[in-house]
Design a protein that fits this description.
The structure holds two protein chains of two kinds.
Chain A: H1 11-22, H2 26-45, H3 52-67, H4 76-83, H5 88-101, H6 109-121, H7 125-138, H8 141-147, H9 150-156, H10 162-178, H11 188-193, H12 201-217, H13 225-238, E1 248-249, E2 252-253, H14 255-265, H15 274-292, H16 300-320, H17 324-338, H18 343-356, H19 363-367, H20 370-379, H21 383-396, H22 402-413, H23 418-434, H24 439-453, H25 459-471, H26 476-487, H27 494-507, H28 519-530, H29 535-551, H30 556-564, H31 566-569, H32 574-589, H33 592-598, H34 611-620, H35 628-631, H36 650-655, H37 673-676, H38 683-690, H39 695-698, E3 727-728, H40 732-736, E4 743-747, E5 751-760, E6 763-772, E7 779-786, H41 791-794, E8 795-799, E9 811-820, E10 829-836, E11 839-846, E12 855-857, H42 862-871, E13 878-884, H43 891-901, E14 904-906, E15 916-923, E16 928-938, E17 943-950, H44 953-964
Parallel strand pairs in A: 3-11
Antiparallel strand pairs in A: 1-2, 4-5, 5-6, 6-9, 7-10, 8-9, 10-11, 12-15, 13-17, 14-15, 15-16, 16-17
Helix pairs in contact in A: 1-2, 1-3, 2-3, 3-4, 3-5, 4-5, 5-7, 6-7, 6-8, 7-10, 9-10, 10-12, 12-14, 13-14, 13-15, 14-16, 15-16, 15-17, 16-18, 17-18, 18-21, 20-21, 22-23, 23-24, 23-34, 24-26, 25-27, 26-27, 27-29, 28-29, 29-32, 30-32
Chain B: E1 2-9, E2 14-19, H1 25-40, E3 49-52, E4 55-62, E5 65-71, H2 77-95, H3 100-105, H4 107-117, E6 118-119, E7 122-123, H5 128-140, H6 145-149
Antiparallel strand pairs in B: 1-2, 1-5, 3-4, 4-5, 6-7
Helix pairs in contact in B: 2-5, 4-5
The chains are: A alpha+beta, B alpha+beta.
Subcellular location (chain A): Membrane, Coated pit
Subunit structure (chain A): Adaptor protein complex 2 (AP-2) is a heterotetramer composed of two large adaptins (alpha-type subunit AP2A1 or AP2A2 and beta-type subunit AP2B1), a medium adaptin (mu-type subunit AP2M1) and a small adaptin (sigma-type subunit AP2S1).
Pfam family, one (chain A): Alpha_adaptinC2
Chain lengths: ~950, ~150
């Protein structure tokens, strides 16, 4: 056994660790661990009470096993027991185990909280610290609830030890982050601010972290911290390196505190008070000056600490963005770092300069470094650094250097790491559009992008080039010519084919005069690549072909031949087949005039923010992309700027999809007609032409068989941008599912919610499928099942949260485990929240968990049935309802519904054969309720009489309500 | 704020994990796997930073051991390197020229020392003297070598 154990080493633990280390294989390790687990379990279960030391040792062994990556499902109780030990080491191990292993929703929390409470009240600083650490480590809501009132008191009490104050400050910070609503603001806040003046630098350091977090949320309340922070900072930066004793780190005075103070100041604008402002400027200048001084030590720790403060000071200067002098000095300093031999400094300088580039004072100064940055792109060995260089080039780009920067990025793209290609593509596309002086350059650039990195060119990029070409007639001929040439390449990317197909379909006529690109040649060129493409591209090409029919009547016959071929007309893909059939018919039936109207050139797209920009922002997260739009507003002659609103006829607006990134070209799932037919003219004729082919269009609507009982609900009223939830109160949703377990619960433009459920006795399991119908990711996707009021005690629903991001087109599944405790009336509510394109979506739907789901059917004879029927004759046991039929009175459908309701359908029981009888038992955890029902239809009056008898009044009533809605 | 700190060996064996955010075990394992893989795959002479999702990963190698921290975007990278260094210094001071074995056999100590230094993902106490004093004080409350050797081994 190695003699490395120190302090209170536990011999048994060391032996065990040695054993594990000596294991030759994974199997041997698992065997050894299982042996140990069995040993510990027997010790914990044994009759002999364990002494504190053994308990500590075993708990520590369990912890070790857990940290090796194995599951631990016992020992928690023993760990909690250790908390109440008076021996420090035992307590400490207990707390460590809890910090590492106890998750926030453990049932043990109450016991743990008890231990913590005792230690907090002990006035023993060591114990108090342990307790505070535990709260900060676990940070659960229950703990926040239990202790948020006490901790501020400990923090500001006059007699609290410094080390406890530090722990209390950071503990409060942690609770504020996890449960901000629970941390009370109050008179303690002003006293916390004054901790910035504390003698003890450790206390100031901890307090500054706390104040920074609080100030981000309530800047007003902590405003006074600005002047205190400035004076504290000033004292630190002007102190000699030895003044602060142990808070000096490699000759740098209190770097951690300095950085934290500088961060705190970044929560506020420049100080209004002239004196404070002057003092701060002095501090920042001192920090910049120190950067030029020779280092006091050769150690990397010295330069790291010093530069850490410098970079934070520069962040503050950029944040204030008000002192041109400081900004330019900062820029020069960063310029020096750009060529530093330390890779870290080059990385950070590029990163920091990125934000500097967006300041009008320093934008020009940043631009002078362009050659260095381009060089970094070419020569840096580290992909992280190259990535920062790309970011900086993007940020420093303006009209004067756009051509150079775009060219360099394209160059780099050829060899760029796969991980950053997509981002570079987006950036190039944005810059090319933004700073295009003439659009031929723009078109060339995008086609180059597709050529070099076609796989990384997202839909947004090629949609955008088409939007722009359609909206600008000066570039259409050039584009047609260029794509035609690009398509000559023997192997070209599918994205190029999409762009090419679309553009030639619209503007192929502009180059058809040239015999080298005659209509037939254009068509043959596109069609030669047709069979190598994916379905969506082929669908797009079919649209191009029908457009050709209009543009070039001379090749109509050729195109019709192609459409007529079996590979089109009988294509296995519904979409392709439908297009082929429809286009073929359109081309043969419609007159030239109608063709010309239907297949007219696309109207200009409505102007909107480039969806590429949205995508880039999303990719990088907020704050990471210097917003070119925002910072350079003065140059607004961009092609998509507001200066030239396109003339768009209103019907065209409805054609193009409402959101920026959805299916622009009407491929995917949108009806075929959208991409081709202008909605204005020839409408009635079109309906005729296509009338025998309508099912594909209809298939977009939620499938009809899902709503056999109730009209489909409108969807728009459920989604709202208003964060206040609009509960969809209509019970139709619930009614729809009374007699069945699967189907579509809800659907709107954004999402579809499907259900599958199974029930057995008093338990149920429901699978909820959330489908993202858009091509954009849903973010912060959050669902909650809410049982209101009495329902809380009647139903027990457990579920796991789903992944907060739902990709476009993806479906995620959530499983609910449901337990029926007692009979209930209301339905639980499913609340869904997510971000879509920046807007918060919030919707609530009732979940169809109804009492009848907990039925178990009971078969019985006629005799039994009527015997029991008579037993349940008390007036409150019977509920009867007479109602009008809402649906055709079909015996088979009625039978299916009764069976679907959950009871056994009893044949030959009722003397009247047209009546229906059923029996079943409702299972809840608390009771079981037998239930008999009888349904008497009167076809002449179109009425039903429904009678329910159960031993419980509430059950009879609820079941009657539920079932009577079904007929 | 720091989200997590991981210590792992060149072979990718995890030696210490400290989480300052509440996440599930599954997610933790995933992060640990991704971190060890991507940090170990880094070429020499590259910078100590990596972008990963919304976080900035700062890592440093000490002999056979890597320390890797997940930081928020606005956190100071260079100072994070020094947080790791200060932690190693604290371990050094306690164990006397710390090596990987010390951390394996005294993992609980490694956690205690880290707890004295960091809390809630923020630096609590930067003074080496104060932290060491705390740790030593707690050791004083413990038993002698003699007591240690007389303990049962199983």
């Amino acid at each position: 056994m190695p003699a490395v154990s120190k302090g209170d080493g536990m011999r048994g633990l060391a032996v065990f660790i040695s054993d594990i280390r000596n294991c030759k294989s994974k199997e041997a390790e698992i065997k050894r661990i299982n042996k140990e687990l069995a040993n510990i379990r027997s010790k914990f279960k044994g009759d002999k009470a364990l002494d504190g030391y053994s308990k500590k040792k075993y708990v520590c062994k369990l912890l070790f096993i857990f940290l090796l990556g194995h599951d631990i499902d016992f020992g928690h109780m023993e760990a909690v027991n250790l908390l109440s030990s008076n021996r420090y080491t035992e307590k400490q191990i207990g707390y460590l185990f809890i910090s590492v292993l106890v998750n926030s929703n453990s049932e043990l929390i109450r016991l743990i909280n008890n231990g913590i409470k005792n230690d907090l009240a002990s006035r023993n600083p060591t114990f108090m610290n342990l307790a505070l650490h535990c709260i900060a480590n676990v940070g659960s809501r229950e703990m926040a609830e239990a202790f948020t009132a006490d901790i501020p008191k400990i923090l500001v009490a006059g007699d609290t030890m410094d080390s406890v104050k530090q722990s209390a400050a950071l503990c409060l910070l942690r609770l504020n982050r996890t449960s901000p609503d629970l941390v009370p603001m109050g008179e303690w806040t002003s006293r916390v601010v004054h901790l910035l003046n504390d003698q003890h630098l450790g206390v100031v350091t901890a307090a500054t972290s706390l104040i920074t977090t609080l100030a981000q949320k309530n800047p007003e309340e902590f405003k006074t911290s600005v002047s205190l922070a400035v004076s504290r900072l000033s004292r630190i930066v002007t102190s000699a390196s030895t003044d602060l004793q142990d808070y000096t780190y490699y000759f740098v005075p209190a770097p951690w505190l300095s950085v934290k103070l500088l961060r705190l100041l970044q929560c506020y604008p420049p100080p209004e008070d002239g004196a404070v402002r002057g003092r701060l400027t002095e501090c920042l200048e001192t920090i910049l000056n120190k950067a030029q001084e020779p280092p006091k030590s050769k150690k990397v720790q010295h330069s790291n600490a010093k530069n850490a403060v410098l970079f934070e000071a520069i962040s503050l200067i950029i944040h204030h963005d008000s002192e041109p002098n400081l900004l330019v000095r900062a820029c020069n300093q960063l310029g020096q770092f750009l060529q530093h031999r330390e890779t870290n400094l080059r990385y950070l300088a590029l990163e920091s300069m990125c934000t500097l580039a967006s300041s009008e004072f320093s934008h020009e100064a940043v631009k002078t470094h362009i050659e260095t940055v381009i060089n970094a792109l070419k020569t840096e060995r580290d992909v992280s650094v190259r990535q920062r260089a790309v970011d900086l080039l993007y940020a420093m780009c303006d009209r004067s250097n756009a051509q150079q920067i775009v060219a360099e990025m394209l160059n780099y793209l050829e060899t760029a790491d796969y991980s950053i290609r997509e981002e570079i593509v987006l950036k190039v596309a944005i810059l090319a559009e933004k700073y295009a002086v003439d659009y031929t350059w723009y078109v060339d650039t995008i086609l180059n992008l597709i050529r070099i990195a076609g796989d990384y060119v997202s839909e947004e990029v090629w949609y955008r080039v088409i939007q722009i070409v359609i909206n600008r007639d000066d570039v259409q001929g050039y584009s047609a010519k260029t794509v035609f040439e690009a398509l000559q390449a023997p192997a070209c990317h599918e994205n190029l084919l999409k762009v090419g197909g679309y553009i030639l379909g619209e503007f192929g006529n502009l180059i058809a005069g040239d015999p080298r690109s005659s209509p037939l040649i254009q068509f043959n060129l596109l069609h030669s690549k047709f069979h190598l493409c994916s379905v969506p591209t082929r669908a797009l090409l079919l649209s191009t072909y029908i457009k050709f029919v209009n543009l070039f009547p001379e090749i109509k016959a050729t195109i019709q031949d192609v459409l007529r071929s079996d590979s089109q007309l009988r294509n296995a893909d519904v979409e392709l087949q439908q297009r082929a059939v429809e286009y073929l018919r359109l081309s043969s039936i419609a007159s030239t005039d109608i063709l010309a109207t239907v297949l007219e050139e696309m109207p200009p797209f409505p102007e909107r923010e480039s969806s590429i920009l949205t995508k880039l922002k999303k990719k990088k997260g907020p704050g990471k992309v210097p917003d070119v739009e925002e910072t350079k507003k003065e140059r607004n002659s961009d092609m998509n700027g507001s200066t030239e609103p396109a003339s768009v006829n209103s019907s065209a607006v409805t054609m193009s999809t409402p959101s920026t990134s959805t299916d622009l070209l009407g491929l995917g799932s949108a009806p075929v007609l959208n991409s081709v037919a202008p909605p204005s003219a020839g409408g009635s004729l079109l309906v005729d032409v296509f009338s025998d082919n309508s099912p594909a269009v209809a298939s977009l609507a939620p499938s009809a068989e899902e709503n056999f009982s109730s009209p489909r609900i409108g969807s728009t009223d459920v989604v709202s941008d208003d964060p206040a939830a609009a509960v969809h109160d209509a019970d139709e949703l619930v009614d729809k599912f009374v007699c069945k377990n699967n189907g579509v619960l809800f659907e709107n433009q954004l999402m579809q919610i499907g259900l599958k459920s199974e029930f057995r006795q008093n338990l149920g399991r429901m699978y909820i499928f959330y489908g993202n119908k858009t091509s954009t990711q849903f973010q912060s996707f959050l669902t909650a099942v809410i049982c209101q009021d009495a329902l809380k005690t009647q139903l027990n629903i457990q579920t796991k949260q789903v992944d907060p991001a739902v990709d476009g087109g993806a479906q995620v599944q959530q499983i609910l485990n449901i337990e029926c405790v007692s009979d209930f009336v209301e339905a639980p509510i499913l609340n869904i929240q997510f971000r879509y394109g920046g807007a918060l979506q919030n919707m609530s739907v009732k979940l169809p968990v109804t009492l009848n789901k907990f039925f178990q059917p009971t078969e019985m004879t006629s005799q039994d049935f009527f015997q029991r029927w008579k037993q349940l004759a008390a007036p409150q046991q019977e509920v009867q309802k007479i109602f009008k039929a809402k649906h055709p009175m079909d015996t088979e459908v009625t039978k299916a519904k009764i069976i679907g309701f959950g009871v056994a359908l009893l044949d030959m029981v009722d003397p009247n054969p047209s009546n229906f009888t059923g029996a079943g038992v409702i299972h809840t955890k608390n009771i079981q309720v037998g239930c008999l029902l009888r349904l008497e239809p009167n076809t002449q009056a179109q009425m039903y009489r429904l009678t329910l008898r159960t031993s419980r009044e509430t059950v009879s009533q609820r079941l009657c309500e539920l079932l009577s809605e079904q007929f | 704020m720091m989200h997590f700190m991981l210590l792992f060996s060149r072979q990718g064996k995890l030696r210490l994990q400290k989480w300052f955010i509440a996440i599930g075990e599954r997610e933790k394992k995933k992060i640990i796997r991704e971190m060890t893989q991507s940090v170990l795959a880094r070429q020499p002479k590259t910078c100590n930073f990596m972008d990963w999702k919304d976080l900035k990963i700062v890592y440093k190698r000490y002999a056979s051991l890597y320390i890797c921290c997940g930081m928020e975007d606005q956190d100071n990278e260079l100072l994070t390197i020094e947080i790791m260094h200060r932690y190693v210094e604290l371990l050094d001071k306690y164990f006397g020229n710390v090596c990987e074995l010390d951390i394996i056999f005294n993992f609980e100590k490694a956690y205690f020392i880290l707890d004295e230094f960091l809390m809630g993902g923020e630096v609590q106490e930067t003074s080496k003297l104060s932290v060491s004093k705390c740790i030593e004080e707690s050791d004083l409350m413990q038993e002698t070598m003699e007591e240690y050797l007389s303990k049962p081994t199983f």
